Amino acid sequence: MRIAQMNWMQVEAQAKRDDRCVLPLGSVEQHAYLSLATDAILSEKVAQDAAEPLDIPVFPVLAYGMTPGFAAYPGTVSLRLSTYIAVVEDMLEGFYRSGFRRIVLVNGHGGNSPAMTFCTEWMGVRTDASVRMHNWWAGPRFQAAVKALDPAASHASWMENFPWTRLEGVALPNAAKPPFNAALYQAASPARKREILGDGNFHGRYQRTDEEMLSLWQIGVEETRAAMVEDWP
């Protein structure tokens, strides 16, 4: 159920039936040979696929996030922490006014995770509301399946290479990229980070078979669906 396919009257009625809603969180940042919008594409799709049989409305993805480390890569757009938190607060208030009390943030970008600290503060004010952030790629079932397939998987590697994040006409290297010096990378400026990473893949192969990726995707969808259903306070 997509908010883009609903009107306000339908939303009002829906919130009275079920006070859950979903907001996907993404980012626009370098992903080597994949789409710059990979995190937004994946979080929105996994949220929609997971919510569909539950009839829970999914709002359009908040596509921009916090990714200052990739600022030296053209096309990367990073919001300041203060800006991002302000946007999240305004959106939570909008959901609350609409009648939603259980809000799932399906996050596709690790840099957005600090927003959950603010959400905890917000729940201290809106005491009848509950917010959950689900980092869909970091779920234990998904990560176990990734490691069983190929433990060399990270940002912009095969792990994020799905049919819907590839770019038409862009050929990927037929190789496995070695790991970089993580300690050096962490202490580096954005320009130096780009020098260390090169094309942007952290490490590992660039692509695996569609059969393998679609099997992984199903696990991610199931785990995301469970986050929408289980263990609400």
From TrEMBL:
It comes from Bosea vaviloviae. Keywords: Hydrolase, Metal-binding, Zinc. This is Creatininase. One of its GO terms (biological process) is riboflavin biosynthetic process. Its cofactor is Zn(2+). Coiled coil: none annotated. PANTHER family: 2-AMINO-5-FORMYLAMINO-6-RIBOSYLAMINOPYRIMIDIN-4(3H)-ONE 5'-MONOPHOSPHATE DEFORMYLASE, 3-DEHYDRO-SCYLLO-INOSOSE HYDROLASE. GO terms for molecular function: hydrolase activity, acting on carbon-nitrogen (but not peptide) bonds, in linear amides; metal ion binding. Belongs to the creatininase superfamily.
